[in-house]
Every structure is written in structure tokens, then in C-alpha cells.
């Protein structure tokens, strides 16, 4: 469990993170989303005790990160995949971390296998690694101590499609086994595919949070008819909102009300169905439109 309570970070006159509160629960993947500069990394760094909050607090497994004894055994952290010593090999990096955490050296081969780094790759210096290989090593380090909580900042950056699928399966089974995952990413569709809960940030604040299902559910009805203008007017006159989408018209009215309005207006309905989700992309761009940042790739 991760609990952030009113976390705030002010740099000079800039409120990088402004009263951010959320809970990431065990058994669930919590997706942490927001455009560049929204404050995701700063929030994660405060949770991990690497950046001191201006105000507010965060706990991991009920304690502040800094108070956790042997934190690597409880919390696996990947904040910057490039942070490793470039002159060391992947295997040396893991062996060193094993020693620090008091783990048997055999654990190195287990995690190398888990993240699919070959013995040859593990023998190479991390300075020569591709971004994808660095991410895999970062994940190996995070998983090394078999922690109950994972905090991962952009872990799929640099991974190829197979790697992205692998990461999704890994996080899913980790959460299904009772682990807590906090995952930030710009890859919206990936987050949509794996996250049970979402926290969406913009300009340092939480703009929306809740279960993915709940946040993506769009109430209302989609329809097409032989006279959309006439039917839309009938629905608007009855007090419902109507908007045009690529697929036809969407209204806040339920199916039955649309059917009745079509009957009264003598319009033939061609298609009538509950609104399908606009997807995370729609929610994301909708909730962060005010920030004016649109460079997030799907
Ligand atoms: N050490 C620092 N000193 C001053 N400003 C900082 C510092 N670290 C972050 N910021 C600012 O805080 C804001 C939030 O940055 P942060 O890196 O947390 O955002 P982010 O959501 O992780 O963005 P990205 O997706 O681009 O990584 C930005 O405006 C950034 O410039």
C-alpha cells in the first residue's frame, strides 16, 4: 500500500506538486498519468524519500520510506534506468545489490532470467546497454529483493513491443499475487491495458482518480438515424445533451428515451447502443486540456 497525503513540492515560486493525495492498493496496478512536467516524477521521488516534500507526507506499507528497514526487501524502485554505474556489468550491478540486501548470490540468475537478459548481455558494461536493456536491468534490480511494492517511473520507455507485452504480463501477475504497483507512463494504451486504478495529474495537481473501469465508463447512448438533425432536436427539446462523434450522435439520454423520441419524431433509428468508452486517451486529453500539453504519445 502506498499513501500520499497532500504532498506538495515548491521550487522557488513554482508549485511542481500541489496537495497530491492518493492511495495505491495491494493487488492492483495504479497507473500514474500526466503530461510532461505534470509532477509525476517529483511525486514518486517524494514517496521514495529522495526529494523532501515542502508539505504533506507519504507512507509505503504504513511507514515513511526512509524508516523502512532494508527498503529493497519491501519496495522495488525504478526511477531512472540510466542511473547505474556505467563501468559495471549488469551482473556486477545485481551482485552488489544482492550483497547490500543480504540476498543469496543465486538470486542474480533468477532475476536475469525473469527480465530476459542473456548471460552475454549481463556480462556487458551497462554503459553499452540500449535503453531497453537498461530498463530490463532496472526492473531486475527492483524485483531483486522480492518486494511487496513496486514504484516504476516510465518503465516501458525504450522497450520494443514484445518487451512492452512482457512488462504488462509481469506487472499483472505481480499485482495478482498481492503486490502493489505504482506505474507512471506516457504510453496511454499500455496503462489502459494493465492499470486497475488511475491517478491523472496536470500542473502539479490530481485532476482525476478512481478505478480505470469507473473513469472510462461514459454514460449515455450512441445512435444513428435516417434524420439525425430532427432526432437530435427532439432529444434536446426533451432536455438531453446531444453531441456528434465520428460514429454518429451521442446523447445523455438512455436507449429507451432515444427510442421514444424517435417514435414521437417519426424518425427511423438505424443504430442504438450504450456509449462505448472513449478510452483513456479521451479521458486524458479531456482532463489535461487545460494544461495545453499535447505531446503525449499513445
Ligand atoms: N530539482 C528541480 N528544481 C526545479 N524545478 C524542478 C525540479 N525537479 C522538477 N522540477 C519542475 O517540477 C515540475 C514537475 O516535474 P516532474 O519531473 O515531476 O514532472 P513529470 O510529470 O515527471 O514530467 P515528465 O513526464 O516530463 O517526466 C516541472 O515543471 C519541472 O521543471
From TrEMBL:
> Which InterPro entries has this protein been placed in?
AAA+_ATPase, ABC_transporter-like_ATP-bd, ABC_transporter-like_CS, P-loop_NTPase
Molecular function GO labels: ATP binding
* SUPFAM superfamilies xref list: P-loop containing nucleoside triphosphate hydrolases (SSF52540)
On whether ATP-binding is a keyword of this UniProt record, the answer is: yes
The family database entries (PROSITE patterns) matched by this protein are listed as: ABC_TRANSPORTER_1, ABC_TRANSPORTER_2
Q: Could you tell me the keywords of this UniProt record?
A: ATP-binding, Nucleotide-binding, Transport
Q: Which Pfam families match?
A: ABC_tran
- Gene3D superfamilies hit by this protein: P-loop containing nucleotide triphosphate hydrolases
Q: Has keyword Nucleotide-binding?
A: yes
Q: Pinpoint the ABC transporter domain residues.
A: 2-228
Origin: domain of life = Bacteria
Entry similarity comment? Belongs to the ABC transporter superfamily.
**What protein am I looking at?**
ATP-binding cassette domain-containing protein
Which taxonomic lineage is given here? Bacteria, Bacillati, Actinomycetota, Actinomycetes, Micrococcales
